[in-house]
């Protein structure tokens, strides 16, 4: 595929290298020529100086033949405007924009532009490390209503079947992390020592799930 990236910061340059290593052609846009110093010396893609929301600039980057457009500059407004130009003017279906303001991210998701809400994602990751006990979100849908969360199931669940945990906590186990590998379990899968249980649930249901697990621990202890 040919992919156009707006923003040659740490994220943009990293994406450019990964995509090129996977065999895709890449054009990267940045308003500062100095930004291209982040690209490795052997980078074969195109470097275009300018604003990604300028139609002539993204046309020069090959947007008309692009399969995807990524906007990862440091400005929310620039990212969303350029993403809309790529989608609405040039008909690129696969468009992603990085947005720092989580409230804006949800609005643009509803407009059909996939976004990565940097601040919310970072906050969730930090909370998972600060508060390891209980279920903390790994991923949430654009509305914030559904989350994938890591559940501290407690040592008392070791030796129990996944189905028993699901029934007790009225939740759904999405997958287990076991010794660095991911495992999609069925109801008869037995939870082993060291397993990390990931559940899919409504965001406002996490507290209840935690309470159910805590109650189970209290009953068994």
From TrEMBL:
Q: What top-level branch of life does the organism fall under?
A: Bacteria
Transport keyword on record: yes
InterPro entries attached to this UniProt entry: K_uptake_TrkA, NAD(P)-bd_dom_sf, RCK_C, RCK_C_sf, RCK_N, Trk_Ktr_HKT_K-transport
Q: Which UniProt keywords apply?
A: Ion transport, NAD, Potassium, Potassium transport, Transport
Family annotation (Pfam families): TrkA_C, TrkA_N
Q: Does the keyword Mitochondrion apply?
A: no
Please state every residue range assigned to the domain named RCK C-terminal. 133-215
Signal sequence span is: none
Location of the RCK N-terminal domain = 1-118
Among PANTHER family, the record links this protein to: POTASSIUM CHANNEL PROTEIN 2-RELATED-RELATED, TRK SYSTEM POTASSIUM UPTAKE PROTEIN TRKA
Record's protein name: Trk system potassium uptake protein TrkA
What broad taxonomic lineage does this protein's source fall under? Bacteria, Bacillati, Actinomycetota, Actinomycetes, Streptosporangiales
């Amino acid at each position: 595929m040919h992919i156009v990236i707006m923003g040659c910061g740490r994220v943009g340059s990293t994406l450019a290298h990964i995509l090129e290593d996977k065999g895709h052609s890449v054009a990267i846009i940045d308003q500062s020529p100095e930004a291209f110093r982040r690209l490795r010396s052997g980078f074969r893609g195109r470097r275009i100086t300018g604003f990604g929301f300028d139609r002539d600039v993204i046309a020069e980057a090959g947007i008309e033949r692009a399969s995807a457009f990524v906007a990862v500059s440091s400005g929310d407004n620039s990212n969303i405007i350029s993403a809309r130009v790529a989608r609405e003017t040039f008909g690129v279906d696969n468009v992603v924009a990085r947005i720092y303001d989580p409230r804006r991210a949800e609005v643009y998701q509803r407009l059909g532009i996939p976004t990565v809400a940097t601040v919310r994602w970072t906050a969730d990751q930090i909370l998972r490390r600060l508060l390891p006990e209980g279920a903390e979100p790994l991923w949430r849908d654009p509305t914030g209503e559904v989350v994938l969360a890591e559940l501290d199931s407690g040592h008392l669940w070791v030796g129990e079947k996944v189905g028993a945990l699901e029934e007790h906590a009225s939740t759904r186990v999405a997958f287990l992390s076991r010794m660095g590998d991911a495992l999609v379990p069925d109801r008869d899968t037995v939870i082993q020592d060291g397993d990390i249980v990931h559940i899919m649930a409504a965001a406002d249901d996490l507290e209840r799930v935690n309470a159910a697990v805590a109650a189970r621990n209290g009953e068994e202890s």
